[in-house]
Predict the 3D structure of the following.
Amino acid sequence: MTPGMLSYQQSMEQRLESRAQSLLDRALGAGNSVVRVTASLDFMQQEQTEESYDPDRTAVRSETSTSEKNGGTTASGVPGVQSNLGGAAAGSGTTSSSRNEETVNYEVTKVVSHKVYPVGTVNQLSVAVLVADRHTPASEGVEASFTPRSASELTAIRSMVSSALGIDAARGDNLEVSSMPFESGLFEVATAAPDATADLYQYVPFIKYGLLCLGALLLYFLLARPVLKSLQGAKVVTPMKTVEELEAELAEQPMLPQSTPDPAVRLRELALREQGPFTQIIKSWLREG
């Protein structure tokens, strides 16, 4: 089967089990019965067209009726010369004829049926029902005991489950009901004393977040911080000087030869000799105007 077919089969089995289980839980109590259903499904796509004829049932398809009548006068007497000459008596007579014809066509009854069978129909159901024996708890001087359920109880359970699931014997469905004691140890959960390992597991999330924070700090101090320091050292820029500071520097410069008394020429010569921020300021002034 394809995954879709298998999923459909499992869902149908679970629905049938849930239907029977809810009924038994109300009748016997929760935990006192187990139901398992195995469904055999037919996923073949089938179409059938059938024509049938019934010779005992006929119907008139068509009917035709025809009627004809003819009539006339005929001469009578002795044939020959005397009759022609008038010597013998001559006479006449009247004749008539009729014809009736009837045709009836019959049609034999015909039935045409076209059937499309659905996909996923149930071919067979196999149901197993296990019920727990009656349990008598232990008391003073009496041990706990299990009593099998009577045949009448099993018959009633069988009839009840058969009606709930639609068991059809003609289809080949099978239903088995058995009674036996249940092992309670399978449903008991052992409660052991908590150990140190179990207590440690509850602190695992906090340890994980602590390790993440420690890793982030190490990454910052060992990698990010040195890189930031190196970038800051490479980007140290000498601050721009004011106009008063530039005039003071010009005043401290040695006097140029008398051949260049023009201040603009003096500034140009200083700009050519000096390198650094001063040159950049002079160039900006020259570009401005």
Notes: The helical segments are 3-28, 81-85, 151-165, 196-201, 204-234, 243-252, 263-273, 277-288. Residues 4 and 185 are 37 Å apart (CA to CA). Strands lie at 33-42, 46-77, 90-117, 121-132, 134-136, 145-147, 174-180. Residues 204-234 form the longest helix (31 residues).
